[in-house]
Structure formats: C-alpha cells, structure tokens
Amino acid sequence: MKKWLDKHIKIVFALPTLIFLMVMVIAPLLYNFGMSFTNWTMSAKKAPDFIALANYIEVFKEPRFAAAVGRTVVYSFIAIALEGILGVALAILINRKFRGRRIVQALMLLPVVATPVALGMAWKLILEPSIGVANVMLTGMGFAARKFIATTSFESMLCLILIDVWEWTPLVMLMVYAGLVTIPQDPYESALIDGASRWQTLTKITLPLASSSILIAVLMRLIDLVKNFDIIYATTQGGPNFATENINIYGYLNMFSYYEFGKASAISVLFFIVVMAIGCGFLYIKSKVEVDY
Q1: pTM exceeds 0.85, yes or no
Q2: How confident is the model at residue 175 (pLDDT cuts 50, 70, 90)?
C-alpha cells in the first residue's frame, strides 16, 4: 500500500479537487448543455422533448437577444476602459510614498468589500427620480432633475457603468499595485542615471514591467463585466422596458420568469462560449507580452 501511495501520491492529493470539479462544475455544465436541446418548462404533466437546435435558432432570431448582446458589449468595454485607466493611475499613485498612504489605500478598498446587491439597492435609492438624494442635490444647486436609471435612453446604462466603475476600480488598482511592488529598482536607478524623464520612466519601464498584472486584472474584470448580474438586477432588473437588460438578465428572466428552461439553457451555453473565448484570447495576448525582469 505504501509503495502504491508513493507512486500515485500526485493523483491522491489531486483527487478531492477533481471530484469537486466533476460534481460542482462539469456535471452541471453537461446537464445544462443537454437541457438546451429540449423544450423543458415547469410543467410536470409533460416530459421534455428533444428539439435539437430549435432553442438556439429561436434565440438568434429574437431581436431582444441581439439587443442584450449589444448592451453587454457596450457596458463591458466602456466599463473596462474606465476601470483599466483609473485603476492603473491609482495604482501608480499609491505606489508612491506619501503621508497617510495606508489610510488612502484602506479607504479606496471600501467599495470592493461591500455586498454588490446592497450597493445596488443603495444606488437605486440615491438615483431614484422623485425623492433620490442625487436629484435633491441637483435641484438644490439650481440644475434640472434627471431621470437617471428610470429612462429608456442610454442614461440608464451610463449610470450602471459608473456604479460599476466606482465599485470595482479599486480591485483593478489593488491587482496592478501588487505587480508594481514586485518590480525591481535596478531599471529605475539606471533610468535616473541616464536622465530619463518621469514620462519615459512610466512608459518604458513601469508599464511594460507591470503589463502582466494589468492584463490579468483586465481579464478578470472583463469576464466579470460580461457576466454582471447583481448590480443591474438590484438597481433596474433590466428595465425600464429592457433598456439595461444584458445577456445574464435576459437568461435569468427566461429561466425564472418565463419558465423556458430549455431556451434559458441555450442562452447560458452561448454565454459560456463567449466567456471562454474572452479568457483564451486574453491568455494568448498575455503569453505574447510577458516581460522578464
């Protein structure tokens, strides 16, 4: 027995993780994939029938699905652009030594540690058109009241983007900052001797050497943005009139409001493919821009 354990020790230690992945990840994915080829609803009187690709064809034909995909893309890329730029700038800022730096770091991380649903509810009260704090402040300063998240225009989506940027930019900052503190001081000392300016030091040393951390932070946030649910559902539930509905909200409503489980499963399969494609694409990019110290 001891010889067998010594020979297969790697498998023994990996077995609990493999079992967990099989039960909690792979099995549900396979079940969901199979369900996407059926017309299963909540009806207990009729067993689900195999309908092949009918759910996928129906999803692609729906204008609402195309609109949800478009909103997801717009939401994700505007938010990741803002979070990436602000996160890197803040990381560079807190990487400098100044009085009260630890306090500033702690205060910046407060939005990240809060529950997204609770934050969504709080922002819903702040941006409420009638009695919300935001409009009270605007009218008090002599400006016209805004509808914020209660309009079908892009203003509702923009509000959600800004909420996401406010909440998750500190996470990008923290991840980039973790990469900055690992950069050795030798390149900076050489640049100082050569008379390099701050801009040259930033663009030729700091950003290239921190590129791996920046890409990982962008990848994690982009995947999280694409599958964003809690903030949107807590504030607008995809409304008004589906103006802020993304792929996740669209799939959720099909599953738990319309009880079209087969169709919702097809949506989740398509969503899984998109997320995997984004992840693989960023990992490929990361492998091409690795910088050795």
Answers
A1: yes
A2: very high
| Residue among 26, 33, 30 at smallest CA distance from 53 | 33
Neighbouring residues of 292: CB distance < 8 A, sequence distance ≥ 6: none
Residue with tokens 């039960």: 23
- Residue 45 confidence (pLDDT): 63
CATH architecture of 63-117+164-288: Orthogonal Bundle (1.10)
Cα angle, residue 215 at apex, residues 209 and 221 outer, rounded to 5°: 145
**Is 80 exceeded by the pLDDT of residue 169?**
yes
Torsion, Cα 78 110 244 87, to 10 degrees, reads 0
Highest averaged pLDDT of the listed ranges 30-34, 113-117, 128-132: 30-34
Structural element, H or E, at residue 142: none
Query: Average model confidence (pLDDT) for the chain?
Result: 87
Q: Can you tell me which residue has the tokens 């009638």?
A: 130
Please tell me the distance from the alpha carbon of residue 141 to that of residue 126, in angstroms, as a whole number: 16
The closest alpha carbon to 62, from 278, 257, 245, 277, belongs to: 245
CA dist 257 and 245 (Å) reads: 14
| Owner of token pair 């306090």 | 103
Place of tokens 């559902």: 233
Q: How far apart are CA 108 and CA 145, in angstroms?
A: 29
Half-sphere exposure of residue 32: CA atoms within 13 angstroms, side-chain side: 17
| CA–CA separation, 101 and 76 (whole Å) | 31
Is the model's pLDDT at 67 over the cut of 90?
Answer: yes
Rounded CA-CA distance 258/219 in Å is: 33
Mapped onto helix, strand or coil, the DSSP state of residue 17 is helix
